[in-house]
Each structure stands twice: as structure tokens, then as C-alpha cells.
Amino acid sequence: MLITAIIKLPEIRAKAPLRQAFRTLPRELDPLGFILFAMATTMILLAITWGGGQKPWSSPTIIGLLCGGVVALTIFIWSARIQGDKSLIPPSCLTRRTVWVGSVLMFLQGGGTQLIPFALPLWFQAILGDDASTSAVHILPSLISNVLSLITFGALVRKLHYIPPWAVIGSLLTAIGSGLLSTLTSEATVGQWVGYQILTHIGRGVAFQVVSSNKAFTYLRTY
Fold it and tell me: How would you class 99 by CB atoms within 10 Å of its CB: exposed for 0-12, middle for 13-18, buried for 19 or more?
């Protein structure tokens, strides 16, 4: 936060004085929308986390959480339509191609790649016989390649100033790497599970960064 605070960003329009901004801040932040959205996501996430594991899907707790989440989400959508651009998630932003395409990309990438750090350590422990610490070490290729791809992608974008192809390349690499990870057997070599992790998370790092970079370039072009 301190580092971000000293970075000077270009302003599209003049801002209100600090005291006035603090007085209008509660209305600008849409606290009702935040509460509704937080309630909806919390209840839905708890339901899909507990369902089929700690509690059966037919239990009153899971059904109640799912119904409550849907109701809270419905009220949030209704509130956003009434408030318009003052809502927590302005409906008008969803009409912008960069926003909804980026959201779909993040949804698909997040859903696909979040399975890997969850399932792969279990594979190391169940198939290779690793303990928890060793399986954490064996997942390091994913983390390191992800970070390095983020840094490399940022440098390349600054030079090339063209973003969409990276979303395609990153998604292709992630899909190929994830498919290869699904072929691992008890006879898999170190080179296989390390190489497949690197390929998958290079793609993930590139594709994830595309969305934020595209928003930044759109903002600067508008300015």
C-alpha cells in the first residue's frame, strides 16, 4: 500500500478535495452492494465446499446456503440495476468487450488451473508417497514458472504494445499442460511432472496478466 501510494497515475478528471471525498466515500463505495455480494459469495462458496464432503448435498444446511446465496445475488443484481454506475459493479462496464472477454478468460483460467495446486500435492502424497512438506517442494516448479512468466510477459508487453495474442498463447499452453498433467501415472518421471507444471503455469502466468495489462492500456489510451 505504501509503495502504491507514492506512484503517480494520470488523472482523467479533476478529483474532489480530500475532506469532501471522505464525506461522499460511503455512498461511492456502495456498502449495501458490498454486503449483498459478500453474503452471496460466502454462502455459495460454503455450500460447494461442504456439499458432498462434510455434509450431503440434500442436507438442510447446504440447501439453505444455496438458496440464501441465490437470493442475495438476485437482490444484488436488482440493486446494481437501480443504482447504475454508482453500484459496486456498474452494469455498464459489462457492455465493454475488454471487460467481459477478460472476465471469461479469468473464469476459465481460474477454474481450470486452481484444480492443479489442489490435486497435484495429493497426487504426490498418494502416488509417489511424499509427505506434506515434500509435496509442497515438488509443487515449486508451478510457482516459480508462474512468477517468471509474469515478469517476462510484463517486459514484452512494454516493448510490443499488443496484448490479445498473449491471451490465446497463454490459454493454449495452459490447456496443453493441464492435459499432460492428467496423463501422469505411478511410472511418471521427474522430468514429466516438472515439465508439465512449467508448461501449464507459464501459460497461466501469461494469460492471467493479460487482463490487468489490457485494462491498463485501455485506461492510458483513454487518458
Answer: middle
